[in-house]
Amino acid sequence: MTSDLHSPLSRYADNLHAEIGTEHHVASPLGAWLLLALCATTATDRADRPAAEGLAEALGTDLTSAAEVARALLDAPHPLVASATALWHRPGQGDGGSTDWRAALPATTEVGPLPDQAGLDAWAREHTLGLIEKFPLRVGPDVVLALASALATRISWADPFEIADAGALGPGSAWAGRLRRVLRSPRRGHRGAIVSTARAGDVIVHAAPAQAADGAGLVVVSVAAEPHVPPAEVLAAAYQLSAGVADGAEPPGRRSLFDLPLGDAPLWTLREERVRTRARDGREERHTAVLPCWSARSEHDLTAPALGFPAASAALATALALPVQDFEARQAAMARFGRYGFEAAAVTGMFELTSMPPEGLARTAELRFGHPYAVVAVATDQRAGDATGPWHGIPVFSGWVAEPEELPEADA
Predict the structure, then answer these.
(1) Rounded distance, CA 25 to CA 27, Å?
(2) Where are the domains of the chain?
(3) 354 near 324, Cβ under 8 Å?
(4) pLDDT above 90: residue 388
(5) Burial of residue 377, with CB atoms counted within 10 A of its CB: 0-12 exposed, 13-18 middle, 19 or more buried
(6) What per-residue confidence (pLDDT) applies to 400?
(7) Is 369 helix (H, G, I), strand (E, B) or coil?
(8) Which of 62, 90, 181, 241 is the most buried (most CB within 10 A)?
(9) Better-scored residue on pLDDT, 313 or 101
(10) What is the DSSP letter of 126?
(11) Which SUPFAM superfamilies match (predicted)?
């Protein structure tokens, strides 16, 4: 299943990070992708072809495959990654149209009435281990439908980092003068490499594994290229290199340290020493890494066409027969990387909006039955489909009310 998702998710990450830009940020392409995948079953009809094509283009795969991947992930949650999805509608809205697609949602997807803002915020906190305190969108009277996804993790490293002086970041690092202490990878447990990539040139790679739970783990991969390489290319290289990291595979393009010159390079310092080693050819390669602690909190607008939410909105509006005039989509994300562990969370939300009527006057009439009046009881007889039975519309009882009675105490 991982191989089925990795390529389309990498492509989606390219689009998302390109829209975000080059400032310090954290995001969850997977959180946004999962929300789109929930909508995949709404766009299968011929009438939804433009929306279906736009949604499939953003997802990077056909709609059936996207829906299957989402169900597989959400209905078999990872021990170290909390996940949740929800679909809420305003009572009387969002329950029209075909219901087939709702039946195809993951079994774990919450479906129900639209919460108020406090309820949405509480949902975000509950499903992100308290790391995201507020839902990324503000609910109003024009919201008729809402979708949400949440992902969160809080892990401890299997082998914690050691501490190093910030000068170890190198004389060319601007951070070396701003920081006092940084992290150094432990002697065992973490992995490192120098890798040649097509998009970012030579990069350095560090992988820190978490303590495993129930046979499942999490590995945080850090990838750096030379400073002139655009962030989008480095992020793309990081996604490419992450493909085999879960299996402990050597990254393609890995460079032997014995093919590189000794001394300082922009991304590393290479030294040689005599050691006792069991390496077959007597040449052992070791990697250590020095990197700073970091944290980020970000919010991202997801309304750009390349991110797929305009197509998802159109598909939902048609499938549920909603009078949608507009939509909103945002993601709130955070992450923190430190000596002993890593935590991260993201909540992605989409609102379907209906147009608000113009302001005017309203009159309310309270109808007072304070003198004798007539009563007629009429039968209704709805049958299968739109057919009606013989009793439909027949007045069954009638009367004239001229002697009212007091409300019984039992009914008061």
Answers:
(1) 7
(2) 2-154+295-354, 191-288, 373-411
(3) yes
(4) no
(5) exposed
(6) 62
(7) coil
(8) 241
(9) 313
(10) H
(11) Serpins
Q: How far is CA 220 from the centre of its chain?
A: 18
> The tokens of 253 are what?
């393009």
Beta-bridge mates of residue 341:
156
> How far apart, in whole angstroms, are the C-alpha atoms of residue 171 and residue 232?
25
d(CA 54, CA 136) in angstroms, rounded, equals: 24
Which residue bears the tokens 């935590």?
343
In the predicted model, what is the mean pLDDT of residues 73-99? 80
Going by C-alpha positions, the residue among 275, 274, 273, 255 that lies closest to residue 265 is 255
Is residue 310 within 8 A of residue 54, CB to CB? The reply is yes
User: 273-291: buried (b, 16+ CB within 10 Å) or exposed (e) per residue?
Assistant: eeeeeeeeeeeeeeeebbb
Name the CATH superfamily housing domain 2-154+295-354: Antithrombin, subunit I, domain 2 (3.30.497.10)
- Dihedral of CA 82/88/94/99: which sign? positive
Phi, psi of 312 (to 5 degrees): -65, -40
Range of weakest confidence among 20-29, 359-368, 402-411: 359-368
Decide the pairing of beta strands 82-89 and 110-113. parallel
Torsion of CA 336, 337, 341, 347, to 10 degrees: 30
* Amino acid (1-letter code) at residue 113: P
Phi, psi of 154 (to 5 degrees): -145, 105
Task: State the residue for tokens 């499938």.
Answer: 319
Q: Residues 258-277: pLDDT tens digits?
A: 888 888 888 888 888 887 87
Name the pLDDT band for 50 (thresholds 50, 70, 90).
confident
Cβ neighbours of 405 (radius 10 Å): 5
CA distances to 12, 320, 332, 363 from 55, rounded to whole Å, are 12, 17, 22, 45
Do 286 and 14 contact (CB within 8 A), yes or no? no
Distance CA 179, CA 330 (A): 33
- Quick one: which of 255, 131, 139 has its CA closest to 197? 255
Q: Report CA-CA distances (Å) from 106 to 30, 38, 67, 73.
A: 16, 8, 9, 9
**Under a CB-based contact definition with an 8 Å cutoff, are residues 36 and 309 in contact?**
yes
Global pTM reads: 0.85
User: Phi, psi (5° rounding) for residue 97?
Assistant: 65, -165
